[in-house]
Specification:
The chain has one domain: Chloramphenicol acetyltransferase-like domain (Chloramphenicol Acetyltransferase, 2-Layer Sandwich), CATH 3.30.559. The protein is built from 6 helices and 10 strands, in the order H-E-H-H-E-E-E-E-E-E-H-H-E-E-E-H.
Length: 212
């Protein structure tokens, strides 16, 4: 018989934050599919060039391109107001045994894809050995959560407060489509801009170029 899961320690912190997130925001999710052909080709190009690039890195780069046109999606809720942030710091959800952390890649709009990939890889490497900094854990302005290695295509990611948006990445199906999910705080972001943001993200992913 398995031992009970107690909401103590880091699991307790996660439980409290998840509950606080859904109790204090009006979370609404949207779903789309993006043709992953360009992403797959871009990854192949970078691999041939000797650079390891993941789908998450390509999504981060795409977010950095489109977010200047959608400031409320790159924002923090502060003292009852939604405040757009100057830098685009993309949080990356990393699952650990019994835990979940969301450190961020800083100032993504100012970085090329190889640097984004290198810094995200560093976060993944340091997370299991508790080497992440407080700033990395707290400065994210939007987050991504990747379930692409599972059979899940769409899901409802939970907001990482005080952020107003989170993007979920699902598997790429046999049809070549990648499931893309988006959760927003509906108090600040209505359905129309959410749909426009998700459309812009899909178009940016579909137009990914296998070049620096």
């Amino acid at each position: 018989m398995s031992s009970p899961l107690k909401f103590t320690g880091i699991r307790g912190v996660i439980a409290r934050r998840m509950l606080e997130s859904v109790q204090t925001t009006a979370q609404l999710s949207f779903f789309a599919d993006a043709d992953a052909s360009a992403l797959t080709e871009a990854r192949r190009w970078w691999k041939d060039a000797g650079q390891k690039v993941g789908y998450e890195d390509l999504v981060i780069a795409a977010l950095a391109r489109i977010l200047p046109d959608f400031p409320l999606f790159n924002a923090h809720e502060i003292d009852g107001a939604v405040v757009p942030q100057a830098e685009i710091n993309v949080g990356v959800a990393i699952g650990l045994p019994g835990a979940l952390v969301v450190p961020c890649v800083f100032d993504c709009a100012a970085k090329g894809l190889p640097q984004i990939a290198s810094e995200r890889a560093s976060l993944v490497e340091r997370a299991p050995v508790n080497k992440l900094t407080v700033k990395e854990m707290s400065a994210g302005t939007i987050s991504i959560s990747n379930l692409g290695l599972t059979r899940v295509r769409h899901f409802t990611p939970v907001l990482n407060r005080p952020q107003t948006a989170i993007v979920g990445l699902g598997r790429i199906g046999r049809d070549g489509l990648m499931g893309i999910s988006l959760t927003v705080d509906h108090r600040a972001i209505d359905g129309q801009p959410a749909g426009e943001f998700l459309t812009a993200l899909c178009e940016a992913l579909e137009g990914a170029q296998p070049t620096p």
